Amino acid sequence: MAALVEISPSLMPPLQSRTGYLPKEIEHVSTTEMKGSDRLTLKVTSFASSAISKPVFVEGRLIEGSVAFQISKPQSINQISIKLVGSGVLNVRNSSTFLVEEKVLWDKGHSSLNVQQEIPFVMDIPRTYTLPESDNPSAQFPLPPTFLGKRYTISYVLTVLVQRKAFSRDIVLECPCVYVPLPHSSPCPYKTIGDNSFVTGPSVDASEWVKSSPAIGSGRLSDGEEVELSTTMYLAKPLIYSRSSYIPIRLVLQSTDPRIKGLLSDRIVPRLSLIKREMFGVKRRMETITTEVEAIAPSRFVSAAKSWCPSKESADSLVFHAEIPLNSSMTPTFGFETFALRYYVVLLPWICEDVKFQEDPDIALLQQEVEIIATPSAHRPVSYAPSNAKTHDVSRDHWGVSRSGKMGAVMALSTQVRSPSTSTRSMVS
User: Fold this and answer.
1) Closest residue by Cα to residue 255 from 282, 280, 225
2) Of the candidates 403, 184, 195, the residue with the CA atom closest to the CA atom of residue 298
3) Which letter, b or e, does each residue of 72-90 get, where b requires 16 or more Cβ atoms within 10 Å of its Cβ?
4) Within 13 A of 388's CA, how many CA atoms are on the CB side?
5) What are phi and psi of 395, to 5 degrees?
6) Does residue 152 sit in the same domain as residue 218?
7) Domain ranges, residue 170
8) How many structural domains are present in the chain?
9) Closest CA to 233 of 368, 380, 399, 41
10) What is the pLDDT along the chain (429 residues), one digit of tens a residue?
11) Which superkingdom (predicted)?
């Protein structure tokens, strides 16, 4: 198997911070009622899509709101505080608290409380956290986003605590919330002329694309003759994409056999997808991506590409244009302690009724890590897929299915292959 060479988007120069292009803030109200008519209410504004969903707080913005209460015996209160707590949980058993940001809103050293009162507050959200038990306790790490994974969970809770005198029960109001980092401005792979945007292909401007090393595959035609097929993948720079946009892609297929272009142009759809991986371990090493659940870091399907062949093609190659639609609900790329959530554009081997390719259909032919960020795109996302664009049948990829579970489906494919060998390549510039 060829060695994997990879360019990490994290090594690229940082872009300027930006928190613009955010939706309008809305108010959330949480209330807890005690004995009698006593009541504690928390009001906060956030960037959530609905007032009944969890509040959504973003990097670079303050948490603003108020704590209102109605308490029959305010003289029993010693202190009122609010705190934001971030925790990570692994397999339910192991948990760690990495963030405690607390602010005292009132204590008994201040003026006396009324039976009914509302206290406004403003809290800053730290951009980083520290790990006291690490080799470098002063090292700063970016605050991770809220995340609910297969084995790991990162959660944030905004808590109001009313501490009362001895023999009186404290009042606690917890409000689970969502944190979204906005690490930098969103790069845009599109060019603009006035209000119109467009993408220049690698044949026009190769400097705007990251090119893979060609993946060389082999197959056998129906007459028994063996052929070779070279596949090259191009991704629009800088491999950092807003989750509210699209990933532009080009695929170039070349073969020494002139019949291949005619056979494949109307009979294949690129098995091109975005997948995510929950990776553990200090090094979180790169490995060849497969659809199997038994892999060290199982791959989970996220989104399938739409692809099409332009009307003007190269005379000596078959060119596919493609784009992968992203979703604003996606968790952005992040790393936390020994855990990382990463995204990859993956092209699985070709499947064609007229050519029996030798590559294992469950092992990536080409793969490239990309960084997904939450920062909204400065330009309105535009899909360039024509009405005749096609999406491959993802159910045939069997993402996250065990080897034993997929054997029946693989045997049913008319283009089943026997050789486990592959020539997986990752993108290089």
Assistant:
1) 225
2) 403
3) eeeeebebbbbbbbbebeb
4) 7
5) -60, -20
6) no
7) 26-180
8) 2
9) 368
10) 232 223 333 333 333 334 446 788 999 999 998 777 889 999 999 999 899 999 999 998 999 999 999 988 888 899 999 999 999 987 767 788 999 999 999 988 878 888 899 999 999 999 998 876 666 767 788 899 999 988 889 999 999 999 988 777 889 999 999 999 986 665 666 554 344 455 666 766 778 899 999 999 888 888 888 889 999 999 988 899 989 889 999 999 998 888 888 788 777 899 999 999 988 874 545 678 888 765 566 788 999 999 998 866 566 789 999 999 999 889 999 988 888 999 999 999 998 888 888 889 899 999 999 999 988 766 667 788 899 999 998 887 877 665 555 544 444 433 333 333 334 444 543
11) Eukaryota
Q: Are residues 226 and 87 in the same domain?
A: no
201 assigned to some structural domain: no
Identify the helix (H) or strand (E) that includes residue 143.
Answer: none
Closest CA to 227 of 252, 254, 257: 257
- Using alpha carbons only, give the angle 230, 210, 381 rounded to the nearest 5 degrees: 115
195: which 2 tokens?
């209000």
Q: How many CA atoms lie within 13 A of 405 on its CB side?
A: 11
* CA dihedral of 400, 144, 344, 302, whole degrees rounded to 10: 50
Task: With beta carbons less than 8 A apart as the criterion, state whether 261 and 231 touch.
Answer: no
Contact predicate 304/394, CB 8 Å: yes
Q: Report which residue type is found at 390.
A: K
For tokens 């872009």, the residue is 15
The two three-digit tokens of residue 143, written as one number: 């605050």
- 365 contacts: CB under 8 Å, gap ≥ 6: 215, 217, 231, 347, 348, 349, 350, 359, 422, 423, 424, 425
Record the pTM. Answer: 0.82
